[in-house]
Write a structure and sequence with these properties.
By secondary structure, this protein is α+β, with helices and mostly antiparallel strands. The protein has twelve helices and 13 strands. Among the domains are: 174 residues, Aminopeptidase, CATH 3.40.630.30; 58 residues, no CATH class.
């Protein structure tokens, strides 16, 4: 019989952390750095609502699930909105689904946006898309030859853009592992400018978010570290990408580029400079996440399914606020198409606010700001 318990990180014994690590290391599907126990541990240092769900059978730990326990028995993904992959980490021989896990922990549900699909059919209320992955295990030359054959127009354009940079600048400077505070602050500034320009909630503003990034920047564990890659033209910052990496997976995370240099496609150039470096460091996969915008379609060579939506757990613990959310989702489906789409966009904005902001005042302010956007 399975037993379930929720622990604060400080309550986890050394043996439980070791069992967590062993579960993660046992299966390649958890190679992404967001499944690393150290990620959950560092998040726990900046967010007091961090919990580790543990499932045991007898003396054996058969599953763990780091998450945030919120009011009303609801839960959120660990480190959201920054955890692009999340979900339970389980032994394959146990039929332990996400919904069973939530029920066992006594949680009413979870809003997910990067749930790793499991063996069972996709639960009701969920949608599935493809995360864009680059398998570079065959080496840069073989990979690049295949991509040029698949996307000849794009790479012809990139050759022209490289020539334009050579014409207009004296030097293209690529830094694979930029540790400078100046580069980090520039990337954060670019992301916050982007949030302000596009009307999205600034998820980098909360104190816990900045505290987490500061901890990750200086942390290097057995299977997790942060890497900031930057591209400069004659010493002028052009583009940067802050990635979370494990020993085998580089996960594209925070990206930014200078808008006045956009005509050179510095974001594409940065990816094209990063990818050749990866095989030499044992990185087999670059994960660019869902969506086919910008560079993703041209540099990915396969996709992995990823789910988003609302997972329901123990219905008995559903709070009034969750019922209101359910009613809102129902309204999205019955309203005229244009109104329904506006409701969906507003809900997505409000979900971002709820993920990032911890205090009631900050969440109210963020929601008001999201609803006040003319173009949700």
């Amino acid at each position: 019989m399975l037993k379930f318990a929720l622990y604060r990180p400080a309550q986890m014994s050394r043996e439980l952390w070791q069992a967590y690590t062993a579960l993660r290391n046992a299966r390649a599907i958890y190679d992404d750095p967001f499944f690393d126990p150290d990620f959950a541990r560092l998040v726990g240092e900046v967010r007091e609502d961090t919990r580790i769900g543990v499932a045991t059978k007898g003396e054996d730990v058969v599953g763990v699930w780091p998450l945030h326990e919120r009011p009303g028995g609801w839960s959120r993904p660990i480190g959201g909105p920054f955890s692009d992959w999340h979900g339970p980490i389980v032994q394959p021989e146990h039929n332990l689904t996400a919904q069973t896990f939530l029920n066992g922990l006594g949680l009413s549900g979870m809003t997910v946006f990067g749930l790793q699909p499991q063996a069972e059919p996709m639960p009701k209320g969920m949608t599935r898309v493809g995360a864009n992955m680059t398998d570079i295990s065959m080496g840069w030359n073989a990979y690049f030859a295949a991509q040029q054959q698949a996307w000849p127009k794009h790479f012809k354009k990139m050759r022209r853009l490289y020539r334009n940079v050579e014409r207009d600048f004296s030097e293209l400077q690529f830094n694979w592992d930029d540790r400078s505070d100046t580069s980090f602050k520039r990337l954060i500034g670019l992301k916050q400018d982007q949030f302000a320009r596009t009307g999205f909630h600034d998820v980098l503003k909360p104190e816990w978010a900045r505290g987490l990034l500061d901890r990750l920047r200086s942390y290097e564990g057995p299977r997790m570290r942060v890497r900031l890659a930057t591209l400069c033209f004659d010493g002028q910052h052009a583009a940067s990408e802050m990635n979370l990496q494990s020993d085998t997976v580089m996960h594209g995370w925070l990206t930014g580029f200078e808008r006045d240099l956009g005509g050179y496609s510095p974001g594409n150039m940065l990816v094209q400079e990063m990818l050749p470096q990866m095989p030499g460091e044992g990185i087999q996969t670059y994960d660019a996440g869902p969506g086919l915008d910008h560079y993703k379609r041209h540099y990915a060579n396969f996709q992995l399914p990823v789910d988003s939506g609302t997972l329901r757990g123990n219905a008995k613990t559903v709070a009034p606020a969750r019922l209101a959310g359910k009613a809102w989702r129902w309204g999205e489906g019955v309203m005229p198409a244009k109104a329904g789409e506006l409701m969906k966009r507003a809900r997505r904005r409000m979900d971002q606010v709820s993920l990032a902001e911890l205090s009631v005042g900050a969440r109210i302010s963020g929601v008001v700001g999201a609803l006040g956007q003319r173009e949700l």
